[in-house]
Automatic annotation (TrEMBL):
GO terms for molecular function: DNA-binding transcription factor activity; transcription cis-regulatory region binding. This is DNA-binding transcriptional regulator, LacI/PurR family. PROSITE patterns: HTH_LACI_2. Keywords: DNA-binding, Repressor, Transcription, Transcription regulation.
């Protein structure tokens, strides 16, 4: 076929309307019969027709580009990095939905974190919507972005001041932490402590709430230790002073430090002291042990965040808050209480 092949040429060869060809190209399978779709695809193959992706996107009123904004540098250097599964889930869902990803890296850096200033928010406009992740968010910035009506989804549960409704996909840290307490209780532990930073971060509050609820339901007294300003040896001293036999670590990157400090006091993990970690650390633990605790569904969270964003972009009425269960990790660091 001489010259540039058009949709009209494909339609004539397939014996269908040009509108039907357009439906097939836009993957509207529910509106085109399978036999018709095959005829169109066969005609496309025979003619060598190539759709203009920019024209298709403009016709739908979409760029088919989704942004990914991270508050800290999170691009993984290895597959073991904490953020790698989030990005892999986002990428897989974007591929499934035939949209492109744009990673924003030029936003102004203030105090070691990227900022969504007015200029940064303007840059987001080249996309249909954006997935946000990281720990350094400014709640006031998020509130302004929400007021602008720009579609975005946060990876991780977030609450905004004033009760503004922010779309997010988070992990059920409260339930997962309560389940870990249940594991220790099943091993006969009745003096179980919690080591975690005080603060208003949602992930910290959820873990602490799960711990306290599980202890009180069992008729036991919660005992929390804030590691700020404490050395691992001082934490172990407090464990001994309070006769704790089990310890939950919200900051899992300190697990090996605490195990080493316990060993310096003559305590073996798990024979003398059971330890459990509440999620994966940002850097993998260098240990011969498999740590008891739970695993955060990071890849699924990334995929679900992009799926929710797609629903918001399309104007679908969906639940803007998705909480995913964490997978239990039995491990080797919890044993029967002595």
């Amino acid at each position: 076929m001489a010259g540039r092949v058009t949709q009209a040429d494909v339609a004539r060869m397939a014996g269908v309307s040009q509108a039907t060809v357009s439906l097939v190209l836009n993957a509207a399978h529910d509106r085109v019969g399978e036999a018709t779709r095959r005829r169109v695809m066969d005609a496309i193959t025979r003619t060598g027709y190539t759709a203009n992706p920019l024209a298709q996107r403009l016709a739908r009123g979409r760029n088919q580009i989704v942004g990914v904004f991270t508050y800290e540098p999170v691009f993984p250097s290895t597959g073991a990095d904490f953020y790698f599964p989030f990005l892999r889930g986002i990428e897989a869902e974007a591929e499934r939905r035939a949209c492109d990803l744009l990673l924003f890296t030029s936003a102004p850096v203030v105090d070691g974190r990227r900022s969504l200033t007015a200029q940064g928010r303007a840059q987001l406009a080249v996309t249909d919507g954006c997935v946000l992740l990281g720990r350094g968010e400014d709640k006031a910035e998020l509130a302004r972005l929400s007021e602008d009506g720009f579609p975005f989804v946060f990876v991780g549960r977030r609450e905004l001041p004033g009760g503004a409704d922010l779309a997010f996909v988070g992990a059920d840290y409260a339930r997962a932490t309560a389940d870990v307490v249940g594991v220790l209780l099943s091993h006969g532990h009745e003096r179980i402590g919690y080591v975690g930073a005080a603060g208003d971060r949602e992930a910290h509050r959820d873990r602490l709430a799960g711990y306290r609820a599980a202890l009180r339901e069992a008729g036991l007294r919660p005992l929390t230790l804030d590691p700020a300003g404490l050395t691992p040896d001082e934490i172990v001293d407090l464990v001994l002073d309070n006769r704790l036999t089990g310890l939950l670590l919200a900051e899992s990157h300190r697990a090996e430090e605490l195990r080493a400090a316990a060993a310096r006091r003559g305590l073996d993990v798990p024979r003398d002291l059971s330890l459990a970690v509440l999620g994966q650390p940002e850097l993998p633990l260098r240990s011969e042990l498999s740590w008891t605790g739970f695993r955060i569904p990071r890849e699924e969270m990334g995929a679900q965040a992009l799926a929710l964003l797609a629903d918001l972009i399309d104007g679908r009425a969906v639940d803007r808050h998705r909480i995913l269960p964490c997978a239990p990790q039995p491990g080797q660091t919890v044993a029967a209480a002595r």
